[in-house]
Specification:
single chain; alpha/beta; 5-stranded parallel β-sheet
């Protein structure tokens, strides 16, 4: 058995010798294998209560559920002390649920940034005090419109699975962070790196 064109073709029997190094095939083969296992796991799950849960089809209920989930993610995995007195960016801030939570936990300032104008506008409408977070509409998907070395901490919650080209974003994080700055990442890979979006692929 030789590994030939494994991508989505898998293992193929062949009498011809393997002409390329194994590393050439390893990642496409593993990608395919992980996807197939994930698909089998997802398809074997029971339907559950998605049709009964109003958060799946009611926008206001979804917003409430989403805010509660983001707060829970932060509170379970990070501490108030980890952002106390810091200038924070909520990367992929949506309608600002995590931004407001970070400010309530003691951040000095919070700037939410997102590429979807409607979500940025919705977040801005929630701002009622001068101490509210600021929300920026990013000029493109690879840029954070802030000065160099201006931020202490970046929150990136449930965003990575939406980024197709990760390297420019990581470089932007490095650019805007002050020396010693950190990035807090939370996402739910479930059975696959695409996480809770895997159902849409299968």
């Amino acid at each position: 058995i030789s590994l030939e064109g494994c991508g989505f073709g898998g293992l193929r029997s062949s009498r011809r010798p393997l002409r390329l190094p194994l590393e050439h095939y390893r990642m496409p083969f593993l990608d395919d294998l992980v996807f197939r296992v994930a698909r089998r796991r997802v398809m074997s799950r029971s339907a559950g209560d998605a049709g009964q849960n109003t958060a799946t089809f009611d926008e206001a209920r979804y917003r409430d559920w989403r805010g509660a989930e983001l707060r829970k993610q932060f509170d379970l995995h990070f501490s108030r002390e980890s952002l106390s007195g810091l200038d924070v960016v909520d990367f992929g801030s949506g309608e600002g649920e995590l931004s407001f939570h970070a400010l309530s936990k003691g951040a000095k300032s919070v700037t939410g940034c997102d590429v979807i104008a409607a979500r940025v506008e919705a977040a801005r409408r929630r701002c009622t005090e001068t101490s509210s977070p600021k929300f920026l509409l990013s000029s493109d998907t690879r840029t954070i419109d802030l000065p160099d070395s201006s931020i202490d901490l970046i929150l990136c919650f449930d965003v990575l699975e939406h980024i197709m080209d990760i390297e420019p974003i990581v470089m932007e994080w490095r650019r805007v962070l002050r020396p010693g700055g950190r990035v807090f990442i939370w996402w739910s890979p479930w059975f696959h790196p695409w996480g809770h979006h895997v159902e849409s692929l299968v």
